[in-house]
Design a protein that fits this description.
heterodimer, A: 186 residues, mainly alpha, Arc Repressor Mutant, subunit A, B: 125 residues, 3 domains, 0% strand
């Protein structure tokens, strides 16, 4: 009985540590998607509850893509609700269609310092955030999961609920669009 | 573009994003902490307190009703000038009927006796 209680407590500590590790990034990702911190906090809390309810019993090695999958679903729900509200209150909100024409950039020069180094400190952070906020949702998500969260293509595909090929396409477009936006900013 | 290998400038982007996550204010961090605790609380077994509370309340109500019945029954029987309070208070007569097997059979045939009585209103057999 005591061993069982200890095991449950250890599980909870592992889960707590996992959520603590992802919560800040999750909040910033939700904030980039919703452009509102309060809404983002609600979405993240929802995602944490949903993740614990449905996936906490899965092996910890699988948690990261599963958590972001739940977060993605919650963000999609949020966007759907917002679109319905917008339809009633105003008119159609800005389209976030991924299929819009979006040229795939050429491979970058390895010696190129990159668009962010031409900007300094907070200016670079603001520029990056603005550029990310303008990206279509799927492209932004692919970029954040691959670049920030450090997931590989397979785990990103699991988190986004799509094929690895789609992840590569979204990421390629995201990198090209961000590079263009940041160069314009500089 | 080979997206398995990320271009070098994305490392700068990662650093900037990480810095933005580390700069969250205390109020936001507190909200995140509460959200995390609320999520974790779902896994803990629900305390039986609420169940015990309602069961205890129901028991207390039942006892209160029982005490009230015992308390008021002798008074009302006494006021009516009926049988001795000890008998009527707990329905001792009813208990006798229920306890006696013969009595039960008699009461099961009560309709028959009523009909028999109606056949001979004078009671002369």
């Amino acid at each position: 009985m005591v061993e069982r209680v200890d095991a449950v407590a250890a599980d909870e500590r592992t889960l707590d540590q996992f959520l603590k590790n992802v919560e800040r990034r999750a909040l910033r990702m939700a904030e980039l998607a919703t452009a509102n911190r309060e809404e983002a906090l609600d979405v993240v809390q929802d995602a944490m509850c949903g993740f614990v309810r449905h996936y906490a019993n899965k092996p910890p090695a699988e948690w990261t893509p599963l958590f972001y999958r739940v977060l993605d679903n919650r963000l999609n729900d949020w966007h759907r609700r917002r679109q319905v509200r917008s339809r009633w209150l105003f008119s159609w909100s800005r389209s976030t269609d991924d299929d819009e024409a979006d040229a795939i950039a050429e491979a970058p020069d390895a010696n190129d310092p990159g668009p962010l180094l031409r900007l300094a400190g907070r200016e670079a952070a603001a520029a990056l955030e603005a550029a990310l906020a303008r990206l279509p949702a799927r492209q932004r998500q692919a970029f954040l999961l691959r670049v920030w969260e450090g997931l590989d293509v397979a785990a990103t595909a699991k988190a986004m609920g799509c094929s690895e090929g789609s992840v590569k396409t979204h990421l390629s477009r995201a990198l090209a669009a961000l590079r263009r936006a940041l160069e314009e900013y500089a | 573009m080979n997206t398995n290998r990320l271009p070098p400038w994305t490392e700068d982007a990662r650093r900037l994003l990480e810095a933005s996550a580390q700069e969250l204010d205390a109020a936001t961090l507190s909200r995140l902490n509460r959200a995390r605790q609320a999520a974790l609380a779902q896994r803990r077994p629900r305390p039986a307190r609420a169940w015990f509370l309602s069961a205890g309340l129901a028991s207390a109500c039942a006892m209160l009703v029982a005490v009230a019945v015992v308390w008021h029954a002798p008074e009302s029987a006494h006021m009516k000038g009926g049988a001795a309070p000890t008998e009527s208070a707990i329905g001792a007569g009813d208990l006798d009927i229920v306890a006696a097997e013969d009595g039960l059979e008699f009461y099961q045939d009560l309709d028959f006796y009523a009909w028999l009585d109606a056949q001979n209103p004078d009671g002369n057999g």
